[in-house]
Amino acid sequence: MDEKKADFLIDARKISKRYVGVQALDQVDFSIKKGEIKCLVGENGCGKSTLIKMITGVERFDSGNLTIDGHTVGEHYDFKQALKTGIQVIYQDLSLFDHMTVEENIVMSYLIANNKKFIDPKEMRTIAVNVINRIGVSLPLDTEIEELSIANRQMVAICRALTQDAKVIFMDEPTTALTKNEVSRLLEVVRGLKAKQMSVVFVSHKLDEVFAVADSIMVIRDGVKVGDFNPKELEQRKLSYYMTGSEVIYSKYEKTKKSTPPVVMELKDLSCKAYYHHINLKVNKSDIFGIIGLLGSGRTELALSIFGLNQPDAGEIFFEGVPVQINSPKQAIDLGIGLVPEDRAVQGLFLKNSILKNVSVPVMDAQKTKIGSIDIKKQELLAEKMRKMVNIKTPTVMNLVETLSGGNQQKVSLAKWIATNPKILILDSPTIGIDIGSKSEIYHYIQELANSGIAVIIISDEIEEIVTNCNRVAVMSNGEIVREYPSEELAADIIQEDIGAVIEESYVQLRNMERA
Amino acid sequence: MEKLKKRIKNIPNTEKYLIVIILLYSLVVSAINPSFLSLETLFDICRSWSGMFIIAIGTLVVMISGGIDVSSTAVAIVSAHITVRLIIAWNIDNVLVTIIMVIFFGGAMGLINACLVQLLKVEPFIITLGTGNVFFGLSTMLLGAIQIPGAAIGKKFAAFGSDPLLTVTMTDGTQVKLTKFVVIVLIVVLITWFFLRRTTVGRGIFAMGCSEEAAKRVGYNTFFLKIAAYVYAGALAGVMGMVSTWKVNQLTPISLVGDELTIIAAVVIGGTLPNGGRGKIFGAFLGILVMAIFDSTLVLIGLSSSWKLLFTGIVLLLSICATSYQQRVKNRKNFIFTE
Amino acid sequence: MMKRKKLKQIIKLDLSFSVLMIATLAICIFLAIALGGRLYSGAVFLGMAYSIPEFALISIAMTMVIIMGGIDLSLVANANMSGMIGAMILSGAFFDISKVNIYILVMGTILLVLLIAALGGLINGLIISRFSAVPMIATLGTMTLYNGITTALSKGKAVANFPKEFLMLGTQKVAGIPLVFLIMLIAFMIMVFCFNRTGYGQKLYLMGENCAASRFSGINNEKNICITYTIAGLLSGIASIVIIARSNSAKVGYGETYLLQSVLVAVLGGVSPSGGKGKLEGTLLAIFAIYLLQNAFNLWQFTTFTKKFMWGIMLLLVMFITQITEKYMNRLQKKKKISKNE
After folding, report:
1. Is it the case that residue C219 has pLDDT exceeding 80?
2. Does A123 touch chain B (CB under 8 A)?
3. Burial class of residue A106, CB neighbours in 10 A (0-12, 13-18, 19+)
4. Residue A212 lies in a domain
5. By three-state DSSP, how is residue A41 classified?
6. pLDDT tens figures, A396-451
7. Domain spans in chain B, listed from the N-terminal domain onward
8. Residue ranges making up the domain that contains A114
9. Which of B213, B219, B278 sits opposite A112 (nearest CB)?
10. Do A190 and A277 belong together in one domain?
C-alpha cells in the first residue's frame, strides 16, 4: 500500500462533502500519478467542480484523506497552502486582470507562491520570457489584457500557471479557443516536463478533446465516482452512457415543411471590421441553421450584428426580402428577430427577478392596459403559458430565476424569446453547462419551434449538437464561412468527423498565416 | 533618445491632453500677466497645494484598489486634531514624532474604513460617507472645535511651517521662500511609487481593482489588500491634515471637511479609472496641478475667484468624458455591455 | 390564521425591506415615547409640511436614480443653480422687472427654472449614457460645474428680495395644507405610479439589476438613463422653486447636508445601493422619520457636530441591518433550494 502511495502525486481517498441538504461528493477516490494527464468528466452538477475545490483547498471536505506528494494534508489545508505544494488552477473565466499587462499577469502566480515581497523588473521579465519560450508562443508582454484576443488570453492564463514548477495543474475548460493541435502541442510541452513529473487534470465537456489527450479518464456522476477508464478502451458513446447513466439518443431534426418564399433572412456580403467578412447566407422558414466554429471565429459577433448590437460596415441584411438596417435590439425584436445570448447569467436573465418578470421583459410595451400602465394579469397569463410550454420546473412563476437549476434557467431564457413570436430565433451556445435531461428537452422545443414555421439559427461548438439539430450547417473560421453543408450532406455517417476535420484544418491554416 | 520617445508614447492619452491644456493655459496666462511665470508663483503653489497633493495620492491608492474614500478630509483634520491635543498635553515639540503620530491616527481610521468595507459589502462610497461623518462628528463632540494657534502647540512646530527650506533672492531684491513641505511631498511620492510598482502588495492593489474575485483566486488575501489601501490613504490623509495646520499656523478643527470631492475630482482628472485597476501618480499630480493653476491664476487674468469652480468643472467633465469613452470603446470591442 | 400566513409571506418576500420599515417605525415610536407632545405637536407637523417638501423632492430624485443603478451627486447643485438664475431674474438682476406683468414674470421664471434644472439633469444623462461614465464621477463633475456656474453668476453672494407674488408660493395654503406640501404630494404620487405601473418604471428596476441583460432584452438603456436623470433634474428644479420661495434668497452651498441625508433616507427606505430594489413609499416613510429625528436633535440641543455624527452612525447601522437580513435570507434560500432538489 505504501509503495503505491509514493507513486501518486495526489491521492484522495473517500472524499465526501455535504452541502445543506445535498451530498455533493460521496466517498470519491481520486488519484493521479506524477506526469499523468487525467481528464475529469461528468455532467453539470455532478460534483467535479466540488472535487477540484476540495483538492485545491478552496473548501474543506467533511471526511476522507488527501495526500499530496506523500504528505497528508492537515486541518488547515487551504488554497494558499495548495499553491505552495505545487498546485496551480486555471479557471474557466481565466481570472486575468484586464488593465494589467501580459507580463504582470504572468508573473503574478510566481510572486505569490514564492512569497515575494518586492518586485525586480529584470527578474520579472526573465521569468515571463522564459515561460513564453518554453511553450513556444509569442505574446506581447507590455500589452494590456483587454487588448488581446481570446486565444491569446487563454495562452496567458496557461503561461501564468506554468511559471511555477507546478507539480499539478488543474485546467477547467481553458481551451475553448484553441485548436486540437494547439491543445496537443501545449500538452506535449507539458508532457515534455515529465522530467519534472508535472501532472495535469483536465476538465472538459468536449469529449473528442478528452479522448485525444488523456492518459486516463475519470467519470463522476451525481457525486459518486463511476470509474477510471483508459481512453483507448473506451468510445464516446459509452462515455456518454457512463456520464449520464442512460443511453441518450437525441432525435435528429428532419425538416418536414417545404420552404415557402420569401427567405426569412438573407445576409449578402456582410462584413464588420475585424470580426467577420463577406458573409453570405440564407435562412428559410423552418430551417434550423447551424453555425459552428471555435471561439473567436466571429459567430457570436455575427449574431450580435443581426440583433443590432454590432453595426456591420459593409454588406446588406435582407429580412423577408426587404433590406434592413438593424440599429438596436428593440428594432430587431420589432422585426421579429430574437437572440438567446451566450452568457445567460449576465446577458440573458435577471437572476434576482421573478420568472414572470423575466419572461415579460421584451414584450412589456405590448402588454398595457387602456391607460398605459402595466397589465399584471396579462403578464401572469403569459408566464404560465410559457411555463407549461417549455416545462419550467418550479412551483410558481413568482420564484426568482436564481432559484432554478441551470437547465431551467435556460428554459426561461428560451421562453422569454418564444413569447415575442419571433420569425427568426438565434441561439448562441444554448446548452452550455446544462444537464443532459434539460438538453434533450431544449432540443425538442427548438425542433418544435422550427416545425411551426420559425427559422432558427444555432451557434455552437459541439459538433454532435449541430448535426443532430440542424438541417443546414456552416463552418466559420477567422470571420469567414469556410464550408457550408446542405441538408443532404448532413445525413452522411462520417459527417461529424468531416466537420471536425474542416474546423481543424482551417485553424491550422490560420495559425500558419499568423506565424508567417 | 529612443527611450525618451518610447516613454512619451506610453503616456496615456488623458495625461497628454492635460499636459497640453496646462501648457496652453500657462502660455495664455503669462502672456496676459507675465508675473505668472515666476519662481514666486511656483513656490506659492508648492506651499498651498503640497497638502492636497499628498492626500490626493492617498485617494489615488484607494481608487486604484477599486474603492473610494470620501472620509479622507475628515480623517485628515481629525487625526491632526487628536495629534495636536496630545502633543500639547504631553509636551512634545518634535516634528518627526508629530508626523509619526498623525500617521498612526490616520492609519487607524483607515483601518476602520477597510474593516467596514469588507464587512458590510456595500459601496465604499456610502460607507466612507458614513464614517467621515462619524469621525468628524465624534471628534468635534469630544474635543470641541476651538482653534489652536501654532505658537500654543510648540516652537519647533510653528517653525516648521514658517521656516523656509531654501530662500532665493530675486534680481529685484525680494526674497522667495520654498516651503519645507516639498520634502514631505517628495518622500511621499517616492514611497508611494515604490509601494505601487515594486511591491507585491502594491501590485495586488491593482489586481483587486481589476477584479476582486480574480485576485482571490490567484491567492491574494483581498481583505489584507483593502487594509493596506485604506490604511495607507488614512495615513497620508493624516499627513495632509498636519501640513494644513502648518500652512496656516493653526489648527482649525472644522476646516478641510467639504473638500473631499475636490480631491477625488483631481485624481479623476488625472486619468484614474473610477472603477479601479489603473492609475498613476503622475496623473494625480497633473490633476492637482490643473486645480492649482486655476486657483492661483484666475486672478491674474482678471477673473474673480468665483470662476474657479466653473473652470474646474469644465476640465473635470472633459476629462471624465475622455477617460470613460476610451474605456467604453475597449469594452465594446470585447462585447462587454456591463455599463 | 389565513391572514397571518399571508402577512408572513409578504414579510418574507422582501425581508430586508420589512426589517427597515420596522426599524423606521421603531424610531418614530421611540421618539414619541421620549419626547411625546413636544415632538408630535401640531406646530411641529405644520412646520414639517412647510420644510420637508424641498428635501423630499430631492430624496425622490435620489431614490429614482439609485434604483436605476446610479447616483446623482449634482441634485443639490442643480437646484441651487437653477434657483439662482430664477432668483436673479426675480430680483431684477438681469432686467428691470417693473416693466413686466408680474404674473407673467413669475410664471415665466418658474418655467425657466424648471427647464434649466431639467437640462442640468439631461446633461448628466447624456454623459453617463453616451460616454459610459461612472455615475458617481459624472455627477461629481456636473456638481462642480453647476456650483461653478452658481458661484460665477452670484459672485458668491446671496441673492434676495423677490416679488411678493412669488413668495406667496411658499406661504400659501390650500384647504389648510401648505401649497408646497401639496406639490410634493402630487409629485410623489405621480412618481409612485410611474415606478409601479408603467413600463418605464419596470425598466428602471431591471436596468438597476442588470444593465447588460436589459440591453439584450431590447430595452433602450441610453434613452431610459437620459429620461431618469432629466426627471431627477426636474424634481430638483421644483425643489429649488420651493427653496427660494420659502427662504426668500438663493445662495451657493444651500442644502449641503441634503446630499448625505437623501442617500440615508433612500437606503433606510429599502433602496439597495447597487440598484434594482427599493420602493418610493419606503423612502417617504424614512423621510418622515428622519425629519422627526432632526427635530428631536434640535429639541435635545445637539450641536451640528453631534448631528453629523448621528447621521453617519445611522447610515452605517442601516447598512449593517441590511447586510444581516440579506445573509439570513440567503441561508433560507439555500435551504429552500436544497429541499426542493431532494
Report:
1. yes
2. no
3. buried
4. yes
5. strand
6. 888 888 878 778 889 999 999 998 889 999 999 888 777 777 788 889 899 888 88
7. 12-325
8. 2-244
9. B219
10. no
